[in-house]
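Data deposition worksheet. Section B asks for the primary sequence of the deposited chain exactly as it was used as input, without tags or linkers unless they were present during the calculation. Section C holds the resulting structure in token form. Section D is free text for depositor observations; keep each observation to a single sentence. Incomplete worksheets are returned to the depositor.
Section A, Depositor: J.P.
Section B:
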Amino acid sequence: MLLMLIGVAIVSAVLDFRAGAMPKDAIAIFAIVILNAVLGYLQESRAEKALEALTALSSPQVTVLRNGAPCEISSKELVPGDVVLIEAGDQIAADGRLLEASHLQVRESALTGEATPVSKRPQITLSAETDLGDRSNLVFQGTEVVSGRGGLVVTSTGMQTELGHIAGMLQSVKAEPTPLQQRMGQLGNTLVFGSLILVALVVVGGVASLGWSSFEELLTVSLSMAVAVVPEGLPAVITVTLALGTQRMVRRHALIRRLPAVETLGSVTTICSDKTGTLTQNKMVVQSVHTLTQTLQVNGNSGYAPDGHFIDQASSQKVEELSLPAVRLLLLDCMLCNDAVLQKEQGDWAILGDPTEGALITLAGKADLVQSQLQLQFERQTEFPFSSERKRMSVAVAWRAAETPWQTDVAHNGTAPPYLLFSKGSPEILLSHCDRAQTNQALTPLTDLLKAQIQQANEQLASQGKRVLGFAYRPLHQLPDETEADTAESKLIWLGLVGMMDAPRSEVKEAVKRCRQAGIRPAMITGDHQLTAQALAEELGIAQLGQQALTGHELEAMSQAELEAAVLNVSVYARVSPEHKLRIVQALQSQNQIVAMTGDGVNDAPALKQAEIGIAMGITGTDVSKEASDMVLLDDNFASIVAAAEEGRVVYSNIRRFVKYILGSNIGEVLTIALSPLLLPIVDVPLTPLQILWMNLVTDGFPALALAVEPAEPNVMQRPPHSPRESIFARGLGTYMLRVGIVFTIIAVTLMTWAYHYTQAADYSGNPNTWKTMVFTMLCLAQMGHAISVRSHNRLAVSISPFSNPFVWGAVIITTALQLMLIYVEPLRDFFGTYILSAEELAVCFGFSTLLFVWIELEKLFVRRVLKQKSVD
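Section C:
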């Protein structure tokens, strides 16, 4: 369309220079072209910063062994075979195989998406097919050492690392045009093609009937038609509409980084969401406590807030007082065998330390145990720390207070022992160190039958996707040495099990339900284990009970064709790698799905870029993922995605509304100009290119902007998304534009023929060209009624509250006043080539302009009557 406008401007300038006139039309057209070009540049131009952000993840200095001695070098100088020393706080600068490790934990969330640090074990050997998140004998570039120390031999650097593979995938992903860009391209092509055909018909037909002497006049007519067919204000109106949409989305916690993404959100058919932090709180929460004599469900899953209560599973009754020793001692174990700290920060409860230990403190807090008070009653004497080899942690404590509520619970021989050892860890490992179990008021030998019962409970909790910890204790009469862990942790007394998981966000279940109602299919793609992912997906309604889930290992064995065949029936993907996420998005797109993909790690960047809508996490997201995304969730909440999709639908509905408003009038203008040489005794047109630009930019533009903020229809999220492949003219929009354009033309041509003969009469005292101004004014005023009527396709204008969108009425009043200024303010009249209208002539213009409004309202009544008759039949 812009190329055609440039051609029109050049021809117009040549004609004006030949006539010795200032090329006002050409200047105005070039100004519009430049404005649209600037808007397009600002909207589209954006440097590829994702790869730049990736390079920032490499550590500047590393400690290596060179010539048998440690020295610091730049990470760029690392080569395979180098031995690198790492410790807590270091960022790992290359992929490598661990040679040694001491309590080494590495946070690999940038690569796997999972926030829990991974304990590393250099002594084990794994198969080459092991999932990335399970390679506990390897470390990777871009990850961070949380605790411990170690040494590694570099195996890969640069583009050969896992981080480098992600960079390669980012380079290979090509951005596709959004549905809106495709539709606008189709619209432009249709308008230009139709305009050129009409111009050719007018010029050829005119020359054939009037001869070559009228060629220049026919060329002027053609120029006016070409300007009339191009909706010059449409790019600006769409850009402003999308910008307004971004502002509304920010209020709903979604920051849009690319304007076309606003509309694309309304076309989304599948949302692929990460689990941790998006569907869940990213906070471990204990959900159940299991002893040999009692099972308790824990109520209150609001993060680390220590408020809630316990429900006895057998009776389904709230437990007012925890009186059984096994439960009381287990909760004391949770608090004492713990290095985390629960504290309030800015009104919210937060944890300093490991999230799992934080969940245990919160559990004890729900039983009214307070960390600071227990520190006054117990004093830690010895600690046997957790390690990946031991899979357990123990602490020995001494009584500080003379009397405590727990002394009776542990006084098995009549008196409480001077010391207590509390342990927690892997249920299987801890159970093997126990020989007794705490029951109601006594100790019971731990028989094989009881052990089998405990193992069964452990497996049941694990199958529900929960992380399970076992708890035990023993009385001590003397403190053990720190080197005697195995001796101290023998002959333990079993207390029970605790099942915990990263609790789902409270609002997500309703958001998933809204997704389903809106015809949007949610799917979970996570680096977590399959059982955990499947249990959460079933709880939230993302997956049905027993529905197939795919693991990264299974996905690796599938061809792309097999994945494409399965992808519409799978809602849970677990233990996936970056390549898998990219393949899943591509498979969905091959099934004509419009995909929104969430992610926060570096590993998510290629899939975010591939998806139609890449959604990065604002709180936990890396710079790489944000740069590759179209949208950033400010609250990392799945529910905000659904809210943004709703806004996207509203934006697309409003775009269609003002497209049919603008193009309906443009068709009327074009046909009026095309018919004027045929219906009038002279080869002339009622509108100059400058006046047409005024209509397209101001008369159409202001009301179109007002229509862009039309509120959402009540059922906007009660229907499936419209096909992203549908034409801009689909669902009756094209026929509406043609119908209204023809009616508009009939009204304009009727006025034009009457006004022409009226102003050419011998007794007419005004300027003979006043008929042009009458047609110009009527066309502009008719659009005001059109704007009021087009707000709804089925409700009458009188039934729509003017206060639901006061901007429309404001635009109508302002535009009408501006149009009158073009007629009655002399400098504007001279510039735009208009003529003063008498009161009677202006009244005629107002009268004819109302006919379009009346026609559209009558159409609504007719359609309503037809639909009512069909429902009766």
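Section D:
The chain is about 50% helix and 20% strand.
The two ends are 47 Å apart (CA to CA).
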